[in-house]
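Deliverable D2.4 — example input (structure tokens):
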């Protein structure tokens, strides 16, 4: 009898350990996975696959309220919320990105209460930081993005791109395509121009693309070069400006454009719980989402070549909004008056990034008084972006280069150690990382250590 009990416990423990090691929950779903893989898992489960087919039929030509009025549709939706399809995400630039996005929206369009102002991003969260981009830019080009404040940074960015075969080839391709005049009435082929731009920003590393898009400027000629980066006469401007809400509705009819816009709102939406106004204080996520919209109907760009402020916008206005004018203005302000986006662009231009302080900082350490005064900085080391809008939060000078000196500005100081990065700076922000998966090894180790005690107890 005892041996039978021991055998049953061993089988039970083996199943638990296998589940923990593979990152699966008790239902057998591996989370999180990309939506293509989630679709494959669902197809292998008869109950999930049949419900998924039912839901797609329910969504065809129906609004959400009509769909939920059907009990079969509602039951299918409830089942799929427990499936791997519910938490699946996509990777930007992945091999089957369009298929992945189609699967994602086929589920999540049925979960929303009609047309939402902000939609959740279908893409996996960004974990990299601007400091990673700076390091790679320094390795590839031999210089930092903000080296020599007296130089034309946008011209330097173009030179750096020309030194890389891939960057040079794809940049020349989109400039040629977007500058080619079709006829006297048709300035260019916008569709082909957008496609060439998407290929450039998807296939060229951000160490090069960011320097072209977000280079800092001290004079109008530099700022105009920055504005002309995407050949706006073809990719951006048009004879008339459409209404911004109409442009958004058009964008949301395309899975790619809808996803990139949702990603921008997720990563650049102004947050009052962070030092930088960006969600998670992640400048890199916001800049990547901004660049990801270029080449679609919602393509943004600098509205002018002013060096006094940074203002970007899609090519649209709120004229003719009627009773939707307030919503339209709110949508447009997410571009034109977005402190998160402005701070991110300025931070990249300055060659600085923000580090986060711990929630429970340690007690201050008393340092011995310095015996020597540090030498004054040369006059030519001033940041080229100090002329930007003073409402932008001042960032720190490079801690790695100049030592742990804090900015003496009256604005918030953003210098902290890189080792102090935390992921819980925004407790209300929803993340899509499996919290249980991180503790699977510890759980497995605890079960294994308890196994001898269980066997001894059963033997007694």
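Example output (designed residues):
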């Amino acid at each position: 009898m005892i041996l039978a009990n021991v055998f049953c416990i061993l089988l039970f423990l083996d199943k638990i350990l296998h589940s923990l090691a593979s990152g699966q929950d008790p239902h057998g779903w591996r989370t999180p996975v990309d939506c293509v893989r989630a679709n494959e898992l669902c197809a292998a489960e008869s109950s999930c696959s049949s419900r998924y087919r039912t839901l797609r039929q329910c969504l065809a030509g129906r609004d959400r309220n009509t769909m939920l009025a059907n009990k079969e549709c509602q039951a299918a939706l409830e089942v799929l919320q427990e499936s791997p399809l519910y938490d699946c995400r996509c990777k930007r630039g992945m091999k089957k990105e369009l298929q992945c996005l189609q699967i994602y929206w086929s589920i999540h369009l049925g979960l929303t209460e009609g047309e939402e102002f902000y939609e959740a991003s279908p893409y996996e969260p960004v974990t990299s930081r601007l400091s990673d981009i700076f390091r790679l830019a320094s390795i590839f080009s031999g210089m930092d993005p903000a080296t020599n404040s007296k130089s034309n940074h946008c011209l330097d960015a173009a030179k750096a791109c020309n030194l890389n075969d891939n960057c040079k080839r794809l940049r020349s391709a989109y400039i040629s395509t977007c500058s080619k005049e079709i006829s006297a009435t048709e300035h260019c082929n916008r569709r082909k121009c957008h496609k060439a731009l998407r290929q450039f920003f998807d296939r060229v590393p951000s160490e090069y693309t960011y320097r072209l898009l977000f280079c800092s400027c001290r004079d109008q000629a530099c700022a105009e070069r920055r504005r002309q980066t995407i050949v706006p006469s073809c990719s951006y401007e048009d004879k008339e400006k459409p209404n911004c809400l109409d442009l958004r509705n058009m964008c949301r009819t395309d899975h790619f454009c809808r996803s990139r816009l949702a990603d921008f709102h997720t990563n650049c939406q102004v947050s009052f719980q962070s030092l930088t106004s960006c969600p998670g204080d992640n400048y890199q996520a916001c800049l990547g989402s901004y660049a990801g919209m270029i080449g679609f109907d919602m393509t943004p760009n600098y509205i002018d070549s002013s060096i006094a402020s940074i203002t970007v916008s899609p090519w649209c206005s709120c004229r003719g909004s009627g009773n939707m004018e307030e919503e339209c203005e709110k949508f447009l302000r997410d571009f034109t008056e977005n402190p998160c986006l402005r701070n991110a662009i300025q931070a990249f231009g300055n060659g600085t990034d923000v580090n986060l302080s711990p929630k429970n900082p340690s007690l201050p350490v008393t340092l011995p008084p310095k015996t020597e005064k540090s030498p004054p900085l040369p006059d030519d080391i001033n940041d080229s972006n100090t002329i930007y809008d003073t409402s932008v939060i001042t960032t720190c000078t490079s801690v790695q280069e100049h030592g742990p000196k804090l900015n003496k500005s009256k604005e918030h100081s953003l210098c902290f150690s890189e080792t102090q990065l935390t992921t819980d700076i925004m407790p209300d922000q929803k993340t899509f990382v499996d919290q249980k998966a991180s503790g699977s090894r510890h759980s497995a180790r605890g079960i294994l250590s308890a196994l001898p005690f269980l066997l001894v107890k059963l033997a007694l």
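Strands lie at 300-302, 312-314.
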